[in-house]
Design brief:
Layout (H helix, E strand, L loop, with lengths): L3 E5 L6 H8 L18 E6 L3 H10 L3 E3 L2 E6 L14 H9 L3 E8 L14 H32 L3 H18 L11 H6 L11 E7 L9 H12 L4 E4 L1 H8 L4 H10 L6 H12 L2 E7 L3 E8 L4 H5 L4 H5 L1 E7 L1 H7 L2 H6 L3 E4 L10 E6 L2
Parallel strand pairs: 1-4, 1-5, 3-9, 5-6, 6-7
Antiparallel strand pairs: 2-4, 8-9, 10-11, 10-12
Helix pairs in contact: 1-8, 4-5
Length: 366
């Protein structure tokens, strides 16, 4: 599953620095001037999961393969982007392609880093981004309304349903609200699926704080947390520069020493990656054998055949059954054979809903 999280925000808030921290396959240029990032950089990031290491320690495979998420570093947005200001149109097109948004907001003061929006104000910065995305969504919604109004007047049931949903979206956006707050489900959600609305995408906020506020936060990050709490979103407090430094360290001992100096138990980017994973409503199942122990990404609520399809589409087409061991059972009994002997290996059929942490083996016939 090529799932993508777009890193967005105003210019010079620390987006590319954060990208440098989370990406283990690409490095974005981070500079103190506007529109440093023009083409979106894409980096594939391993999802940290201690369960994968624990399974590997028991199985001793030839290789260990974590699951991944792609982070996309997108050009900084400015006021007027929805009308093409700055690199607005290109920026908004890039956001349209991602599955979720990590919105970086500046929560630190530094006279050496350019800022054209006045005093540090997380609420105002968030509103600028929200407004531009809402205006672009409003443009998309109004265009579709024009296309289907005539169909709806002819009595086309599907068109009437779509029009009702679109009018709801229009009123919502005109009120300065994001589409995700509407909570559309089922047919209502399908009615706007082709628009890939920007404000429908799930979002988490990254409060980029100064070094001194890394553990406690500051008045800016606290203000952001209050705003996010009202909309049911999560805030990750980080210092993006420190995270970038940690990510460059290859020696585990050096990294541990560096973390301990800042009284950190793990890099902040680990929390960010896990939060992004959760935001996308994803879970992990594992396959474990002598060749490899591997983590696989699926959607929460997927049934066994659909989960098998991420390994190979043939697994879903010819699905017969799945052998399933719960993660905790595998850790307790240490081998597949011992799990089988103790009745902890289950045979599940097509209707089985895969659980987070399941260790699975699929039987199929094509």
């Amino acid at each position: 599953m090529a799932l993508q999280v777009g890193i967005v925000g105003l210019p010079n808030v620390g987006k590319s620095t954060l990208f440098n921290a989370v990406s283990n396959s690409a490095k974005a240029q981070a500079s103190n001037y506007r529109f440093c990032t023009i083409e979106p950089n894409v980096g594939q990031v391993d999802v940290p999961d201690s369960r994968l290491d624990a399974l590997a320690a028991l199985v001793l495979p030839q290789r260990i393969i974590p699951t991944t998420i792609e982070f996309v570093d997108i050009a900084g947005l400015v006021k007027g982007a929805s009308k093409g200001e700055g690199l607005g149109n290109k920026f908004l097109a890039n956001i349209r392609e991602v599955d979720a948004i990590a919105h970086v907001i500046r929560c630190f003061e530094d006279d050496n880093i350019l800022r054209e929006e006045g005093a540090i104000n997380p609420a105002s910065d968030k509103d600028i981004i929200d407004t531009e995305l809402q205006l672009k969504d409003l443009e998309s919604v109004e265009k579709k309304i024009q296309r289907i109004e005539k169909q709806a007047k002819t009595g086309d049931t599907k068109a009437k349903l779509a029009l009702d949903v679109l009018l709801q979206c229009k009123d919502h956006l005109n009120a300065g609200k994001n589409i995700r707050a509407l909570g559309l489900q089922g047919e209502d959600k399908e009615a706007i699926a082709d628009l890939f609305l920007l404000t429908e995408k799930p979002v988490l906020y990254v409060a980029n704080v100064d070094e001194g506020a890394l553990l406690t936060g500051n008045k800016y990050s606290q203000a952001l947390q209050k705003i996010a709490q009202e909309e049911g979103a999560e805030v990750i407090v980080m210092n993006n520069t420190i995270e970038a430094q940690i990510s460059e360290m290859e020696n585990p001992e050096d990294k541990e020493l560096f973390l301990s100096e800042y009284q950190l138990t793990e890099p902040g980017l680990n929390r960010l990656i896990r939060s992004a994973y959760k935001l996308l409503n994803l879970i992990t199942y594992f396959t474990a054998g002598v060749q490899e122990v591997r983590a696989w990404t699926i959607g929460k609520g997927w049934k066994a055949p659909q989960a098998a399809s991420v390994i190979h589409t043939d697994f879903e087409k010819g699905f017969i059954k799945a052998e399933v061991i719960g993660y905790n059972d595998y850790i307790q009994y240490k081998t597949e054979a011992a799990c089988r002997e103790n009745g902890k290996l289950r045979i599940e059929g097509k209707e089985y809903i895969v659980q987070d942490g399941d260790v699975m083996h699929f039987r199929f016939n094509v």
